[in-house]
Amino acid sequence: MDIGSELYRKTLLTISGNSLVEKLTLKYGGKLAAKFIASQELGGALQVIGDLNRKGILVTLDHLGEGIRALSEASGYREEYIRLVRGIEQAGVNSNVSLKPTQMGLALDPEACYANIRAVVREAAAAGNFVRIDMEDSPYTQATIDMVKRLHGEGLTNVGTVIQAYLRRTQADVRDLIQSGVNLRLVKGAYKEPAEVAYQKKSEVIDNFKAIIRMHLDQGVYTAIASHDDTIIRWVREYASENRISQDKFEFQMLYGLRMNEQARLASEGYRVRCYVPYGKMWYPYYTRRLAEKPANLMMVLQNMFR
After folding, report:
1. Tens-place pLDDT, residues 70-81
2. 127 labeled binding residue
3. 35 with 257: CB under 8 angstroms?
4. Residue 221 is part of which domain span?
């Protein structure tokens, strides 16, 4: 990443890690966070999904939460996700499911985490739905990949994960996971990582992002490209056109609250578009990562604050 944007990202993530800043934001920032959070309750999130579907936009629904301190919390999240899967089916909306491994106990007990996630994936399989296991920071990368491959080995193939372009290991992981038949969501990456683990220059991240997108498209593997970057979106459209890759072979993924008009426009042009819709009360870590991605997100929140 370039020096300015990386300094901004690191600074904001550092500030947001301050306990006083977190306390004040949780107390006063709920209305501002609503820009990026669909609802604090499942019912409100399902209504948002229905509205997006009517615009031709697909959805991935995420119940916010990560970094739990006790396995009892993980059990609560597991039950909420089972309720979430059933809620999607009952509402008749078009939405996948997204969850975080640490939310299910990965940092506390990997086997308990696996059992919790397997219960959700099984529930989704019974409903004909798909579960995306999010990729968190690098200490959890290998464990997350191993978990997804283990689920596939049990015949639960309705599960995939996320690959981050800024990690140096990424191309090797993509080759392995494509061969294993694992559906991947391709992203740049949003966590604070050291130089020995992740590329620090924006140009290097972009080059690697394009490389792993090509690896998918060239092999005819369904490709989920998560980006708000016009340069990336335009490049994918041109690459697909030049190589006669049909629009049903890939999808663009964007976040709720960001570039909603662009999401609707792409959908109206016949592209598959999926919106990542988070809901829940544990919104602070997700919210701060969104603000840290680029100054424009912070400016948008500040403008809303003073209106």
Report:
1. 999 999 999 999
2. no
3. yes
4. 37-282
